[in-house]
Amino acid sequence: MRIKDIIKNTKEALTIKPFHSSSLSSIEKQRQIQSLARFVLLSAAVMLAFEPSMAAAAAATTSNIETAATTILTAVTGTLGRTLATIAVVVLGMMAMFGKLAWDSAIKVILGIAIMFGAASVVNWLGGTMNITIAN
User: Fold this and answer.
1) Which of 4, 20, 75, 111 has the most CB atoms less than 10 A away?
2) 18: buried, middle or exposed (CB in 10 Å: 19+, 13-18, 0-12)?
3) C-alpha distances in Å from residue 133, one per residue of 63, 64, 125
4) What is the rounded CA–CA span in Å between residue 110 and residue 85?
């Protein structure tokens, strides 16, 4: 994929209109969802490519997969994740200020942030109640 194509896809992904069920056809909604998915995957690829510790962790051997997963979890729920979540909330506030906010999208973003930072607690809670034992 050429750089121009990547830039074009990124621009298309960033121009997401708030959709109301009556204003967009099902084809336009599907294109918007595909565009968002491409943007998320492209962002993840760029983050992994340019973060040396993540790239090293991703290229690790089987014995270091736990380290790679922990590195990714730390990046997503650590300072980087909190910064991106804060930026997302600021963007939502600006969209609301200008009257361009679709409230269903805002609720999805807020729930996504809550799930992202609450996932470890949910997994710990489920793991603690299931009494999982692993034989060595």
Assistant:
1) 75
2) middle
3) 20, 21, 15
4) 9
pTM, rounded to two decimals: 0.48
State whether 34 and 100 are in the same domain.
no
Distance CA 116, CA 96 (A): 23
Domain that holds residue 135: 66-136
Domain assignment of residue 120, yes or no? yes
d(CA 94, CA 96): 5
pLDDT digits (tens, 9 = 90+) for 71-92: 888 888 888 889 989 999 999 9
- Indicate whether 71 and 131 sit together in one domain: yes
Q: Work out how many domains the chain is built from and give that number.
A: 2
Asked if residues 35 and 14 have their Cβ atoms less than 8 Å apart, the reply is no
3-state secondary structure 94-124: HHHHCCCCCHHHHHHHHHHHHHHHHHHHHHH
